[in-house]
Please model this.
Amino acid sequence: MFFTQDIVLRIFFSKKKIINNDFSIPINSSIILAPTHRSRWDGLVLTMAMGRRVTKKDCRFMVTKSEMRGIQGWFLKRLGCFSINQLSPSLSTLKYAVNLIEKGEQLVVFPEGKINKYGKKLVLKEGLYRLARLATKKTKSIIIIPIGIAYSKVTPKFRSEFCLSFGKPIAINEFLNINIKEFNEFLNEQIIKEEEIALKNVGR
Model:
């Protein structure tokens, strides 16, 4: 945290803004963070906004297997990331993710499934909803937080700005009677709405 937050982020970015509208999360709830995914910087800025220093909990990121290769993979693993095969997720990975939720950890799942640099409309992956539904068998209070992340440049440049906008927490128990497509359409609307707020705050 000292290296990434106190040195790298402070030097690289000239300004940061976090908009959370003073939302409150019910005590003893398990949290799944659902942000837009526009850059490889997303994990670092999200950790600054919702990491141990703020919430007293680490962010545990679910990322694709390709992102966990080489030096980048070594670094990501130490930031709390673990990989999943999107086409055929293993039982052990799903079990690990559910255990994190059950223990009240902050699990981060990028609903778009990959970096969507220009914010093109995508059909959200089904993993987040399936995982949340699966975890309800272990714990009843699961909250999903839609988050919009934006940078002043499409590809973040030295001394550019970033903004995170947090939406209203979504209690998964209120969405158990709808199908994945309906939930993803709702979630997509929420994260895009928050991203639009974040974009305005960085002048885009």
